[in-house]
Amino acid sequence: MGGSLASLALLGAGAFFSSLCGRRSRWAARVALLSVVLSAVAAIPEALSVLLSGQARRWEAPWALPWGSLAWSLDPLSAFFVAFLLLLAVPFAAYGRGYLEDHGDLGWQSLSWSFFQLLLASMVLVVLASDGLLLLLAWEFMSLSSLLLVLYEHEKDGVPQDGLMYGVAAHLGVAALLALFALWGSQAGSLRFEALASTSLGPGTASAVFLLAVAGFGSKAGLVPFHVWLPRAHPAAPSHVSALMSGVMIKMGIYGLLRMLLLLGSWHRQWGYLLLALGGASALLGVVYALGQHDLKRLLAYHSVENVGIITLGIGAGVVCRTEGMAEASLLAFLGALFHVLNHGLFKGLLFCGAGAAAKAAGTRDLDAMGGLLARMPWTGSAFLVGSMAICALPPFNGFASEFLIYAGLLMGGLGKPSVASRPLFFSVPVLALAGGLALACFAKAFGVAFLGEPRAKGAREAREVNRWMTAAMVLLASACLTVGLLAPFLLAFLKEPAFLLVGGKSSAGAAGALLPVSLAGGALLVLVGILWALRRLLLRKRTLAPAPTWGCGFSAPTARMQYTASSFAEPLLEPLRPLLRPRIHAQEPKGLFPEKGEFSSHLEDGADRILYGPFFEGAARLAAKVRPLQHGRLQHYLLYTLLALLLLLLWGVARP
Amino acid sequence: MTALLLRLLAPLPALLLSPLLLGLIGRVKAFVAGRQGPPLLQPYRELRRLLGKGEVVSTTTTGLFQLGPLVALAALLASLLLLPAGPLPAALSFPGDFLLLAYLLALARFGTLVAALDTGSSFEGMGASREAAFSALAEPAFFLVLCGLAWARGSLSLGGVLAGGTAETLASQAPALGLLCAALFLVLLAENSRIPVDDPATHLELTMIHEVMVLDHSGPLFGVVLYGASLKLWIFASLLVSLWLPAGLPLAVSVLLYAGALALTAVAVGVVESTIARMRLSRVPRFLLLAGVLSGLGCLVLFSGGRP
Predict the structure, then answer these.
(1) How far does the CA of residue B28 sit from the closest CA of chain A (Å)?
(2) How confident is the model at residue B166 (pLDDT cuts 50, 70, 90)?
(3) B5 is a domain residue
(4) Residue of A35, A324, A387, A513 with fewest CB within 10 Å of its CB?
(5) Chain A contact present for B290, CB below 8 A
(6) Are A206 and A264 spatial neighbours (Cβ–Cβ below 8 Å)?
(7) Is residue B4 one of the residues assigned to a domain?
(8) A547 in helix, strand or coil?
(9) How far apart are CA B152 and CA A408, in angstroms?
């Protein structure tokens, strides 16, 4: 336990010292980088040893917390998440060091570094907490520190609104969690996890607890329909914070869900179906909305919704398979879900870093004002390409390895039993496949429009490669995507123990064996590409490679603005869905015999916003407006209210039998 | 030892004979139209001609323009390792290998898309956009066909999926297999940019999908694109016919059956191309939805019949 506690202390101290740096923000960054690296060094060996041995470590501070205790434990599930989050924090911090350098007020920079470490510390605490109250406290710290990070560019248009939305969404989620622990704690008599786990809940209560966990933790993870805050809050933050939030923080929702499932112990098959349905909906809606975005960072944020959906599909498959007694399939699905947590952290972090670099260099986040960035920023562009291929689950990168395991779990479960119970698993496969195909279209668009072709605006034309800190972090993450993809069968050894916990027993599934040929094929693929490249060079040795402009199909004056844009690229996919998605379209067609000017713009707004939350918050606002006459700021009236309230209480006390 | 050799030989027929499928389609189209038409071996001649040329490379492009087609070809070659050649088992076979096959095809697509977008041409962007959209919509049908077969044959590897049926089970599952087969044929037409989804022979850039993506490629690089297209057609056709190939026949007979069925598929594609008009692009999603519905129905019919 020592290592994890030391890392907590280091991050806390780092946060304190960074906040003292004031306008000497470079020192704040140095302190942050040092504390992040040291805390990773302190905690990761311990976490890895827990992951390999499967032996949980516990520690309890001798101080009491009102209604709770300071009980901490590092079991394999916690260890996986601790190692995951501290490992990823290092490149993000390094990237942030370069990103913030010339970005914003110096004093704010120091504070931002302080919150960055506070966010990491609170996430470590969330994962270590072995008591409901402690978990909630850490959870709240996490929400608030990330909210303050999102508000970094608070003077920009829209950022305060996005921050407000995030704050409200986070606290609605906390409300569900409070209800969860109140319900469960009242049955168990304590909020300690051991007490919660040893209480046997009735089927109704257990399902209520599960549903509250899905709402509370799912809203942090960004599951549909609790996702609306995510595509607004993540892009508003500085890019290293977006990377941390999208890559790591939303996984705390996944952790919470898994932890609650573990504590619940016995599951219902219907829970698994619910998770499959929510996961499938998140995967599809996430990618469809991503297709409609022009803002690069917003597009990536919607892909986080998609990938959380994929992870949830894996968890749902694991739940269904375990309740149906198919331990091997369940193990594959849980392994896939956990592995995808790690992989998504790697490639989504990388993509947000790349998007931040591109946006910084081109001076805009609008895809349709970019173009040709690969030629101008080769490091960023290549890293973004690797991230795009990894997120599309293309072999030999890491995304494929984890999606393969999830597919394998779904298929083995769907094929394993001829009963109707496994049909939803079977039919989740084409859903995942469709989401994969759409993701490929979306990243061909994002990478192609931003990085290839000719620049569409002045900012993109004058873009230059970003500084060394940023490129180094991106290269590190990109090589991690490839290495993890190729070494996947060996890395599974670190995921076995948490998956065994979730399956509820050790089984000898050959998951590593299943991935071995995948890695072999990935290696073969790389070799083949090399051979083909060499053959072509050999063939062309004595021939001419004539440079020429791109063929304009006979048109002699093509301009960069005639290139396919983000909207036009997505049109064939979004057009059939138009009645469902209802994008806002402003079009002014050119008129007259000698047409001069025309305009077209389209915006895709979130349906959940329109259908679900918009009316709800409008209703709340109307209600608030009705109550407003009560508040007019006169002291006498408030005293009157107090008196009336006391009288009512008194009456209630008297009238009560 | 001979078994191992046979395994390594499995990709050979595809490598050597796949351009023949394109040639055969050309012959059928010429025959139906009453033209003399190009000779059967025309695709080989074109490959030889292209490989002997230099290249023109657009000044807008980065290295991806050249790397893309090579990655696509490498992915197709790697997927040949997973594909059983009729009665010959695949070189590499493991549970879930058809997932890898599907994603290798996706990688090939990504390579082509990126190479097309690298030119900055609006026409190639148009082709890339359409290819990405239609292939994504074809994905569920493709997976449903393979998963349905996997369910019917109780195997997770392509070898077992394709070679599990005896003559009796084939007969008893014929209705379901017919539906899956029809869906796979539609996917084949869409993925290989044949009529009615795309027209490989047209020279109107606005109406093309695949051809318009490779407008700027020339010389050996274009040869790579052409050869890759023939390999892709072979992969889909091979899946389509292996589904019906009964197990337990003598090797020579099943090899003949396999070859004959492949040729028949090419003829079918040629006949479809000669008799049906290309559809409007906005109707392609419905066409692919049809493929998805057919494959879903096929799976349901399989389920209702129970596993033999």
Answers:
(1) 30
(2) confident
(3) no
(4) A513
(5) no
(6) yes
(7) no
(8) strand
(9) 17
Tokens of A299: 């597009």
What are the chain B neighbours of A414 within 8 Å (beta carbons)? 147, 151
Counting the structural domains of chain B, the total is: 1
The per-residue pLDDT for range B207-219, each reduced to its tens digit, is 678 888 998 999 9
Q: Is A571 on the interface with B (CB under 8 A)?
A: yes
Give the one of A437, A453, A532 whose C-beta lies nearest to B117's C-beta: A453
Q: Do B215 and A423 touch (CB under 8 A)?
A: no
Q: Give CA–CA dist A253/A218, Å, rounded.
A: 6
Name residue A575's amino acid: E
- CA dist A393 and A385 (Å) reads 13
Q: Which pair of tokens denotes residue A644?
A: 């009336």
Within 10 angstroms of residue A179's Cβ, the number of other Cβ atoms is 15
**Domain membership flag for residue B47:** yes
Tell me the sheet residues that pair with A599. Answer: A588
* Whole-angstrom distance, CA of residue B198 vs CA of residue B272: 12
Do B156 and A411 count as a contact with CB atoms less than 8 A apart?
Answer: yes
Query: For residue range A152-189, what is the model confidence (pLDDT) as tens digits?
Result: 988 888 899 999 999 999 999 999 999 999 999 999 98
Q: Closest Cα of chain A to B112: distance in Å?
A: 10
Q: pLDDT tens digit string along A497-552?
A: 999 999 988 766 566 678 899 999 999 999 999 999 999 999 999 888 899 888 88
DSSP code for A222: T
Beta strands (DSSP E) in chain B are 55-58
Maximum Cα–Cα distance across chain B? 60
SS3 A590: coil
Does B169 contact chain A (CB < 8 Å)? no
pLDDT of residue A43 exceeding 80, the answer is yes
ipTM of the complex: 0.96
Integer CA distances (angstroms), B248 to B8, B160, B167, B178, in order = 21, 13, 9, 21
Contacts of B87 (CB under 8 A, 6+ apart): B163, B245, B249, B251, B254, B255, B258
* Rounded CA separation B304/B298 (Å): 10
Phi, psi for residue A164 in degrees, rounded to 5: -60, -45
Phi, psi dihedrals of residue A14, rounded to the nearest 5°:
-60, -45
Alpha-carbon gap, residue A453 to B25, rounded angstroms:
35
> Pick from A445, A452, A514: which is nearest to B94 by CB?
A514
Task: Look at residues A178, A141, A172 and name the one whose alpha carbon lies nearest to residue A164.
Answer: A172
Give the pLDDT mean for A579-605: 84
For chain A, give percent helix, strand, coil, nearest 5: 75, 5, 20
Taking an 8 Å cut-off on Cβ atoms, the answer to whether A448 and B125 are in contact is yes
Asked if residue A235 has a cis previous peptide bond (ω within 30° of 0), the answer is no
Smallest CA-to-CA distance from B216 within A369, A453, A567 is with A453
Q: How far apart are CA B55 and CA A536, in angstroms?
A: 11
Helices (H), A189-295: 193-198, 203-221, 230-236, 239-244, 251-264, 269-291
Distance from CA of A105 to the nearest CA of B (A): 37
Kindly give, in sequence order, each residue whose CB lies less than 8 Å from that of residue A239, ignoring residues fewer than 6 positions away. Answer: A95, A99, A297, A352, A353, A355, A356, A357, A359, A360
Is beta strand A545-548 parallel, antiparallel or unpaired with respect to B55-58? parallel
CA-to-CA separations, B273 to A329, B34, B268, B279, B284, in angstroms, rounded: 44, 14, 9, 12, 16
B145 touches chain A (CB under 8 A): no
Host domain of residue B217: 12-305
Q: Are B271 and B56 in contact (CB under 8 A)?
A: no
Rounded Cα distance between A428 and A410, Å, is 7
B7 in a structural domain? no
Interface of A with B in 444-483 (CB under 8 A): 444-445, 447-449, 452-454
